[in-house]
Design a protein that fits this description.
By secondary structure, the chain is of the alpha/beta class. The chain has helices at residues 16-29, 47-53, 81-86, 97-102, 107-119, 132-136, 140-151, 181-198, 201-206, 220-224, 241-248, and strands at residues 5-9, 37-41, 60-64, 91-94, 123-128, 163-167, 209-212, 231-234. The protein has one domain: TIM Barrel, CATH 3.20.20.70. The protein contains eleven helices and eight strands. Strands 1-2-3-4-5-6-7-8 form an eight-stranded parallel barrel, surrounded by six helices. Helix 1 (16-29) packs parallel to helix 2 (47-53), helix 5 runs parallel beside helix 7 and helix 7 (140-151) crosses helix 8. It is globular and about 45 Å long. The two termini are 19 Å apart. It binds 2-phosphoglycolic acid (PGA). Residues 9, 168, 173-174, 212-215, 233-237 line the site of 2-phosphoglycolic acid (PGA).
């Protein structure tokens, strides 16, 4: 049994005070939640203040949205994995499509970041996903294969315990056009198969694969009902406490 994860990616939103307020609402909403891991990813500037505001029992975990692949040094504007640990993070999101598309991050760089983050003791949420053009030209599986194999290159099966995959089709991010439950399941089961090939079956059965891309209160249940969908990485709807609370309380009952 894989414990589901609901993660909120706040992107470049929220001042420190706004972030603390939203984090408090999220933690209130988790007070009676059972059997779901909740993660929030505020912007860098708010991380340490949000960490202080979160309940000590760890029922809301903290992620950063990116990090660099070096421990320290002359890398103006970058943040080291150990700095994120110091700020109270347990997780880091890597390889988000906005990092890939807007900031030119390659699979190779994302792989180096993944190693650096794991070495510093962070858990990694590795994002993969095809563009609309890649899907429509029949290259989706090839793209997912490259992003998965190259992103996870050199990791041990033990390290895979600290890795979560997020399948986020680029055409579904921030567009309101979510993948259908069937499309998500098709990609997720493909990625789980890839991981079985790269590592082994037990690793592939343990790894959580989240879906991301316009997850909302009204589509989360259908997505979560899929066998290989183990959670959601939520952008826009994670900025609204009520919507995020409904998503955390997804229901897969018929
Ligand atoms: P969205 O973003 O929910 O706003 O589509 C998801 C993401 O980019 O992680």
């Amino acid at each position: 049994m894989r414990t589901p994860i609901i993660a909120g990616n706040w992107k470049m939103h929220k001042t420190i005070n706004e972030a603390v307020e939203l984090a408090s609402s999220v933690s209130d909403a988790t007070a009676v939640l059972d059997g779901v891991e909740v993660i929030i990813a505020p912007p860098f500037t708010a991380l340490s203040r949000v960490a202080e505001a979160l309940p000590a029992d760890g029922r809301v975990q903290l992620a950063a949205q990116n990090c660099y692949c070096e421990g320290q040094g002359a890398y103006t504007g970058e943040v080291a994995p150990a700095m994120l640990v110091d700020a109270g993070c347990s997780h880091v999101i890597l390889g988000h499509s906005e990092r890939r598309q807007l900031f030119g991050e390659s699979n190779e760089l994302i792989n180096r970041k993944t190693h650096a983050a794991l070495d510093a003791g962070l858990r990694v949420i590795l994002c993969i996903g095809e563009t609309l053009d890649e899907r429509e030209s029949g290259r989706m599986f090839e793209v997912l294969k490259d992003q998965t194999a190259e992103g996870l290159k050199g990791l041990t099966p033990e390290q895979m315990d600290q890795v979560v995959i997020a399948y986020e089709p680029v055409w579904a991010i921030g567009t309101g056009r979510t993948a259908s439950a069937d499309q998500a399941e098709e990609a997720h089961s493909f990625v789980r198969g890839l991981i079985a090939g790269l590592f082994d079956k037990p690793v592939s059965e343990k790894v959580r694969i989240l879906y991301g891309g316009s997850v909302k209160p009204d589509n989360v249940d259908g997505l979560m009902a899929q066998q290989n969908v183990d959670g959601a990485l939520v952008g826009g709807a994670s900025l609204k406490a009520d919507d995020f609370a409904r998503i955390m309380n997804f229901s897969v009952e018929a």
